[in-house]
Amino acid sequence: MRRAPLGPRLLRSFGGAAATMALAGVVLAGMVLARPAGAHEHWVDLDEFRPAAGDTVRVTARSGHYFPKKGHALAAKVVRGVTARLPDGQVRDLAITEGDKQWEGALGPLADGVHVFTLTLQRARAPRPRYEARAIAIAGVGSDDAAAYAVGSGLELVPRRPLTQLRPGQSLPVALTLDGEPVAGEVTAVPTGGRTSSAKATAQAPAVLDIRVAGRYLLSASAGGRGCSLVFDVDEDPEVGQ
Amino acid sequence: MAPAAALVRTALAWVLLIWAALAWPTTVFGHGVTHEVFGAGTGIRATYDDGSAMEYCDVAVISPADDGVEFQTGTTDRHGRFAFVPDTAGVWRVTVDDGMGHMMTVDVTVDSLGAIAAAPHDHGIGRLSGTVGGEGAILGLFGLWALLRGSKADE
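^ inputs. structure came back:
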């Protein structure tokens, strides 16, 4: 068969490749949507987010691209430490040790109320932390208080409704604050068993995240050259199990 | 001996003793130091993709003459800057690492000493350039595949 000239061949090739290009667009969209999940984050994780009063909670700090399973321990030179803000407002430094893939510590026995754990990453001589990773545990039944989530210093993500009352299908307003003052930034949410999503926070209004599944969530954001994250747990809807 | 002459000799002896005591440490630590101020050199400024400075981050400089051997190490300043003075022409490799998962390697081309024409060539893939590059690569591959498929259909 005699071949057609190159010009018409090219036109036909690309004209017939519309479906292919559409597929490429879908792939690209997937890449763009998946990109926040692939960002390099740091997080504090707990073995129990709803411990009973008197329990001891195990705290781990990791860094990596795939929350929560794949991560590594950061170098000691950038880890300033892990603290726990207790229900009575006191802040306690946790003794942490460097493991193979994570930093580890423990706090106990816990009192009733909200405990906020903070991992601070800061290089020597740097005037401020580069990253603050937090996790929230609520010990005891009926002791949750959204007003106790904010530490009030550094860059932090602050849920604006009680986490123990949060269920899949609901939305969660989350403020991004710097030293207690709301700032603007994009908040990314990575659930352990769901899709990554994001929403924008402003100085006037918190980001509103759709909570689609139960389980642990990693929220992250950045502002003013600093980064932060927050890990918390969403309980199953009791009606789902019935 | 006249009392005045004895007094002069005693005073002179004390002066010599004090002078010797002051001079002795200089003799013991006889390697003096000096300095010169110069303006030659080149450097980089490292920033995160949000524009903030990579302050106080680890830096390693590899000379083209000693590949694999660090010519200089140090940290960036509070503005994310780091300067060094090349002693040979060629491509100098500078690596900046914040120790928190962010690292970049920059090739700085030094054309000739004394007239450094630094032409940084960033090997780090930024968020935007990475996305655009990935999109381009995928579109290119699919376009090539479409072209080949069209060519086969013509035959």
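Helices of chain A lie at 6-16, 18-34. The interface with chain B takes residues 1, 3-4, 9-10, 12-14, 16-17, 20-21, 23-24, 27-28, 31-32, 35, 40, 42, 63-64, 74-75, 77-78, 121, 123-127, 130-131, 222, 224-226 of chain A (CB under 8 Å).
thumbs up if we can close this ticket
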